[in-house]
Amino acid sequence: MRFVAAIGLVLATVASAQTPPAANPARVDPAAPVPIEVFAELPSVESPRLSPDGSRVVAKSAIGGRQVLVLSSLFGGGQQRSLSAPADTDINWWRWVNDDWLIVGLGTQQMLYGNEHYVTRVLSVNADFQTTRRLDWDKSGLRADDVLWVAHDGSPRILLSRQTGIESESDFNPAVFEIDVSTGKSRRVAEGRPNVYSWYADGEGQVRAAYQYNDEKRSSALLYRANNAESFRVIARRARKDEDGLTIPITFRTDGSAIALDDEGGFTSVYQVSLPDLALGRKLHSVEGYDVDGIIDNADENDVAGVTLTDRHGRTVWFDEKLKTLQADIDKSIGDRRARIVSWDRKRDKFLVEVAAASQAGGLYYWDSASSRMQRIAWNSNTLQSRRLSPVSTIRYTARDGLSIEAVLTMPRHRSGQKNLPLIVLPHGGPSARDSEGWDWWTQYLAELGYVVVQPNYRGSSGYGVAFARKGAGEWGLKMQDDLNDAVTHLAKEGIADPGRVCMVGASYGGYAAMRAAQRDGKLYRCAISYAGVSDLAALRRYDSQFLNGRTIGDWLRSQAPDFQSVSPRFHAADFSTPILLMHGKVDKRVPVAQSRALAAELKRAGKPYRYVEQPLGDHFFSRSEDRLQFLQEITAFLKAHNPA
Q1: Which of 75, 146, 603, 618 could be joined to 627 by an S-S link, Cβ 3.0–4.6 Å?
Q2: Would you say the pTM of this structure is higher than 0.85?
Q3: Distance (Å, rounded) from C-alpha 125 to C-alpha 94?
Q4: Which CATH class is domain 392-642?
Q5: What confidence category does residue 589 fall into, taking pLDDT thresholds of 50, 70 and 90?
């Protein structure tokens, strides 16, 4: 059976819609409660991208409660245009290629050979949003959206890593193609190789490295070549018994060296490395007690311009002198708010800057170096605008085994100075992720209701070094759960929270933790709320193995929970001792709705108190304002019944 492109649609141009003007927050009593509908609003601007000439912005925006891709002119004179996709198709990312063309990553679920698969594609769109072109959709397999490089000379060329089919092992391994996005014509520049799913290119468009992982042997290797004319050769290997991972060059310098992230010393730092021996050279940047998140290249993609990191909050450290000066100038002008440069033109003279605070949704600004002035383009929330809500801080507490845990604490603004307040424990998803100080609509809503909200970065969370991450191995629902419970103990001892009025709320892995809390630790929690939670780890492993990255997810899950059944709430419904609200989106592609359905069925069979709500058009990420509003309404009613503020 020949695989035909699964995303059988092209984005359709829709009429522009103007958001009605919001009330001026300056005229609103700052102590007045914020209506629930405000927290359910979708962001006005998401992931904005400035055109290479600096005149236009493409971003995901909210129109009629839906997220669509919007093209806007910064200087007037151009009609705002929008592109939307059907409800079953995700708009995952977008990127300018040159002044005339963009590329957009799409994804959707498709039944194939009796199984569901998440299929991705790339669409090219001309800059007036009038013409779209499918890039090799009829020849691609499941994954076809990994863009390695975009030409710097103004030509509409990209390097795209994609599967060429799924009927054979050679088709399943992605190859690399150079594609002219204006015509759709392509040529292969690197053949697919067994167990290679990640490719790396340099700033000139040469495919330089490939990461190879064998799930059966649990071994990895790095393949390398100096340019497209050479053959690939293995320059590093790691076996299952090796604790250290491979050093992978990310940015290739013109002097023959490279820039890489490496956890030498226990924390991810930025190094210069030599090629092809991968010897670590000078450490370019590190931060005490935290990992570096990533690298930002210079305009030619042949050196590093800055690094991104998260300590108490996310930020960028710039090496480029112009950008370092710009960041410093903006920081001086915004008081206690935080500025993040999110996009720029080809000359890096014009910038989009997001300015916000953990208690303020903030807005998007335009900076032109020629005038040294910032001009606001949009508020992230048209209703809240610059209004401040509940204060956010970072705390540390000690877990029962002595491990230091960092957590984000949000205090309800209407209850300043009060003690022994009702508490929500809100663990993050992942679990290889972390929370930090930043605007969060969900957390701010719970605080607006009157709850203290704590977001513990339990063991296994990312960003705190190798040792901390490894402490999460094999601890799903065990010590990771203890870390969450120990946050309650700490806040009760400090007089902040009432230990008799606690509820756990979470989504994805956080939803799993909420299920586990209701099942394992009911004496500590008056209720639990799970959105898109995992109830059956073995079933999740089977589901995820159908995806391309499923060749490694099985090994990873085994290390996180060696005995799936003992820590899967679905199989312990009889142990649930506190009421739980289960909510799940029917079209969730990350965690299938069957995970919540199965637990609901077991709880019903066991006669346990629960409520199950399924959102017919809901996904994993609250992409629709209606779903956000329904979720907030449901948790409000549930909390009022079981743990009132």
Answers
A1: 618
A2: yes
A3: 10
A4: alpha beta
A5: confident
